[in-house]
Design goal:
The protein has 17 helices and 19 strands. With 450 residues, the protein is of the alpha/beta class. It is elongated and about 85 Å long. It has a seven-stranded antiparallel beta sheet. Strands 7-6-11-10-9-8 form a six-stranded parallel beta sheet. Strand 12 and strand 13 form a beta hairpin. It folds into two domains: 250 residues, Alpha-Beta Barrel (nicotinate phosphoribosyltransferase), CATH 3.20.140.10; 175 residues, Aldolase class I (TIM Barrel, Alpha-Beta Barrel), CATH 3.20.20. Belongs to the NAPRTase family. One of its GO terms (biological process) is NAD+ biosynthetic process via the salvage pathway.
């Protein structure tokens, strides 16, 4: 599964606007920017993700025969519009924050510069891709920052809101610093390390726990991690110890156990004692079962001897903040800066850049949002990634994106690293951008009818 899907996966108004633009010959260069109006409650920062799937979508955008036939037969559009769609390709330029970049409210994550019809049509799908992956990456980042280097695995496919969501969530979580996923297709498609052992049904299908443990260990001698909470967790741990001695004579090592229910801290302490006393001090203890970053923090603060965590529902659905207030707005058309002035939804006009400043110790000190031509001190965050409808460079390896994200965490001010709401990170609007906004306001007011 890729981001290359039917161009009909869009809102109807994208097509109705296109037909109106085509009839009126409006197809000069437009500039749209994608940004988040405000951070969700409980988020101190967001993580840019989904760019590669967005670029894949743009490169492969085209209406095929079956889609053109549907448009023609739908009764919604005029006949000539089908001919226009048949030749439509994305031929624009794209500027974006590289994946893994930490960003904040009102900062453009992506800019599209293309003929108006092309730039307008892609709005819905770009928001769909980037909104979701950035949302999940930001959620995953919170677990990464509290986990203190412990193993983190995405277990969320079965609770994801659809197949693509589960696949993209696995990618976004890995990009944000998770160690792997249980989603097999994500391993095949993206090269994400795969983790997983057995379900409770495997234990139940056997006549006894020990029999189930041994069957699995002999089937997968290099990955003998055993699920021990189907019946009685501590009793199962003792059975693992006895079985391990027998397996050792055949060169099979029990790598660890997984606990999926109950008081995880208490069970982990008891199981750790049983394993250590039974000669298995190197055996890992993994935990899963309705975990999120807050429960991770509690377990770690309590000193629970847990080596790794599987996190599912809360991650893939970003359950505490299941959406971003992301938008894709027209900022320039036919060479003139434009802005929306709706109450509580006003935008900053023109092509913009974000400059990030750093303190002497390397931590982020503040961002400046300004017009593209207003050079500021600091690191510019948006870079060109597509020209004339084609990528400028091959996609970076996902592992490299992950490394970049982890490096950016180290630049976070300490207050932003925790789970509690922190004072907002400073994002300054430069005088040049404010001046452009005033200029656009005056122009719009002078052109408004009496």
């Amino acid at each position: 599964m890729t981001a290359t899907v039917s161009p009909l996966l869009t809102d109807l108004y994208q097509l109705t606007m296109l037909q109106a633009y085509v009839e009126r010959g409006m197809n000069e260069v437009a500039v749209f920017e994608l940004f988040v109006r405000k951070l969700p409650a409980g988020r101190n920062f967001l993580v840019a993700a989904g760019l590669e799937q967005a670029l894949d979508y743009l490169e492969n955008l085209r209406f095929r025969d079956e889609e053109l036939n549907w448009v023609a037969e739908s009764g919604l559009f005029k006949p000539g519009f089908v001919d226009f769609l048949a030749g439509l390709r994305f031929e624009g330029d794209v500027y974006a924050m590289p994946e893994g970049t930490l960003f904040f409210a009102n900062e453009p994550v992506l800019r599209v510069v293309a003929p108006l019809t092309q730039a307008q049509l892609v709005e819905t799908r770009l928001l769909n891709i980037i909104n979701f992956q950035s949302m999940v990456a930001a959620k995953a980042a919170r677990s990464v920052l509290v986990a203190q280097g412990k193993l983190l695995v995405d277990f969320g496919l079965r609770r994801a809101h659809g197949a693509e969501a589960g696949l993209f969530a696995a990618r976004a979580a890995y990009l944000a610093g998770f160690n792997g996923t249980a989603t097999v297709l994500a391993g095949q498609k993206y090269g994400i390390p795969l983790y997983g052992t057995m379900a409770h049904s495997f234990i139940q299908a056997h006549d006894g726990e020990t029999q189930a443990f041994e069957a699995f260990a002999r089937t997968f001698p290099g990955n003998a991690i055993l699920l021990i909470d189907t019946y009685d967790t501590e009793r199962a741990a003792r059975r693992v110890v006895r079985l391990a001695r027998r397996l050792a004579s055949d060169g099979i090592e029990v790598r660890g156990v997984r606990i999926d229910s109950g008081d995880l801290a208490r069970h982990a302490r008891e199981v750790r004692r049983i394993l250590d006393e039974g000669g298995l001090p190197k055996a890992l203890i993994l935990a899963s079962g309705n975990l999120d970053e807050h429960k991770l923090a509690e377990l770690i603060l309590a000193g629970a001897p847990i080596d790794g965590f599987g996190i599912g529902t809360s991650l893939t659905t970003s359950s505490d903040a299941p959406s971003l207030d992301s938008v894709y707005k027209l900022q320039e058309y036919a060479g003139r800066a434009r802005r929306k002035r709706s109450e509580q939804k006003a935008t900053w006009p023109g092509r913009k850049q974000v400059y990030r400043r750093f303190a002497r110790n390397g931590t982020m000190a503040g961002d400046v949002l300004t017009v593209e031509t207003d050079r500021q001190a600091g690191e510019p965050l948006l870079v060109q990634v597509m020209a004339g409808g084609r990528r400028i460079a091959p996609p970076p390896a996902l592992e490299k994106i992950r490394e970049r994200t982890l490096a950016h965490y180290r630049q976070l001010p300490e207050a932003l690293r925790g789970l509690d709401p922190a004072p907002p990170y400073p994002v300054e609007v430069a005088p040049a951008l404010r001046a452009l906004a005033e200029e656009v306001n005056r122009r719009e007011e002078s052109e408004a009818p009496a």
